[in-house]
Amino acid sequence: MSTASGDPTTGTADFFAAPLADASLPEEWESGQQAVTEQATNPASGTDEMSAPEEQVTRTSATPLPGAPNGAAALPYRPTRGRYRSSGGGFHLELRVDVDSTAGGPKVLNRISGDFFSTSGATTTYYGSLVVHAPTVTRSATQVVISGLGTYTWQAGAPIVRVTIPRRRINQPQGTATVQFLTTSNQPGAGYTCGYVSPYFRTVQWEQDSVTGRIPFLSYDTGSLPQPPNSPARALTVPRAYAEAGIELLMSGTANTIADSPGGWTNTELHGAMQTNFSLWRDAPQWKVWLLVAGSYEGMAGVRGIMFDAADSFQRQGCAVFYDLIKGTDAESQRAQLRTYVHELGHSFNLLHSWQKNLAQPPAPLGPQNGFGDLSWMNYPQNYLPPTGTGGAAAYWGAFPFQFTDNELVHLRHGFYRDVVMGANAFGIGAADIEPELFDEPLADESGLRLDLRVTKSGFAFGEPVVVELKLDTTDLRGRSTHDHLHPDDELVHIAIRQPSGRTVLYRPLLRRCVDQDATVRLDTDRPAIYSSAYIGYGRDGHYFQQPGTYQLRASYLASDGSRIVSPVLRLHVRHPVSQSDIELAELMMGEEQGTILALRGSDSPSLQAGNDALQEVIERHANHPFAVYARLAKGLNFEHEFKSLSPDKAGLNVRPPDTKSGIEQLSQVVKVSEQGKGVDNLTLNLATRRLARAYARQGDLEEAGSTLDRLVRHFDTPAFKPYVVDAVRSQADSTKARLLAEFGDS
């Protein structure tokens, strides 16, 4: 039995613990060929290396195997690769060895890594992780020795790692790894015996459910459509796509078929469905993930998938794909389905979009063209920008070899445990401290675009929800084309917040959507600008404006051509509370549940009941206070909308119908106060007014619905607003009238 000190690299361990049972190579890797490291002359071996280690190879002539005829050539060696695990009490080590492969097997990254766990009685807890990025590899006829200086999640007393693994032929079981830790003065520390577990670096249990009438994706033949010549044609399933990355995805649990939500699914409803249907779910870090094949996403066109589980303390356990946007049996549809499934599951492994890697913690370098040049599962095809030539979806698919990039593979295989395992570190990792230089103005800007970040008031009361307005316009009289994803939820706009303490953090929205759809807009003299409004007071890291003082904000927009447009600095002041009443109101507004409700624009979720109660108290006890308009907005939008939850038997949906009377009561007050300039910003007023009109139409009063929309147009049809803004509002009002008439005209 192992014993351990406070540092697993300096304690002691039993070198004679029994190894775990052998596991064979996946069938697609087991070709009976020599390990790639013994086939240096084979250019098709697929072993392009990220950073070649210092490698010393001692080659000896092959000797016959026991029982082989005299002079018979020895069988090839097994690759020294995969996952190993020590056993016994105290500390135990899960080791990953990535210095070898077979022809056609996963790419060699030339790393070893591991995770330490501590066992006490009947409980096991995570201790820390290590990685050696460029080990020295020495091979002889009998063993492979891998050594190097590790990077740890703690200050290791013996940071040098030496792993010795006996070489085995393909008809022999894999050898056991002996791990010795050494101090920088070469004194021995702890040692571990790690039995071979699997050729995969990590194993994840994947449970998949679908809604009625939606058929889950099975496989795509990559040879069905043009692809790069260096990418072999093969039938790719989602598990095989991850197997090629060295990750085992095991289908687990029971595949439930649940009732669909005809109007589309919200994030809150998806999270509730996960808690009800994910048989492996619990609030704890675990290598388990759930995917729902749903019909559609509510409230926004173009959302093909979403990693919706980014709002609590145990994130990244669930994601969804939306069948209605990717359905089809033709080759293009099957290809799109494969990419969407792999992409959303990639977010569950804590992989960011290709253009966001520099905003992660720790930051990773961006690929070509600010990340838009990545040929990766995590890029958007329509965003692809090659170093030369025309970009877009056709160029992406013509060059995409159906794989992750090298730094994504490093994360998947060798990222520290809590940064990768589902339910541990939050999406994007940690509290999102960032370097302010990431938002510095470019040295030269010929994009023809300009971004502005602004607020409609000179300051905010302590506890008041912070809403900002974003404006993107063109400085080129000839006009410019770009995408219109201007809201931070779509992850092509980022906002940095320098707090009064001097700390700079990244606003990370509670909701994050994969809007995998081309949405090109032309900015010219007819339409010189587009606008968006965003509540940024609360996100995945909690409340961002928790202390009085001056904040400095700056936004960054990633344009379709890869240009990074940076706004001027916005200075925003949060006033000190001056009375006990101010403090009490701030407490009612700034709870975690209240922040979630404001970000979600209302929710009936039982887990948010305390937040709803607090907002109701603001409405009832402080009806005339400026904060009440925000509480009314969240409650009113929620009342106007139905709320869905799964029935206990999981076979149907419980639908709370819209409460039009309560919705009208709350939203009419929001509109009235805001029209007087004492409520929400104009973009939010536009939204609230159109939802109020919908509530009137739903209760059968189409005349009042039309009058409400007419008042909206009159509010904007003044010299204070530019003509193209008035035209846009009038167009929205007219299209809303047409939809309401079509939906409720016969009721």
UniProtKB/TrEMBL annotation:
Compositional bias ranges of the Polar residues kind: 1-12, 31-45
InterPro entries: MetalloPept_cat_dom_sf
Molecular function as annotated in GO: metallopeptidase activity
Comp. bias regions, Low complexity: 64-76
Region entry Disordered, spans: 1-79
Name of protein: Uncharacterized protein
Organism (species): Streptomyces avermitilis
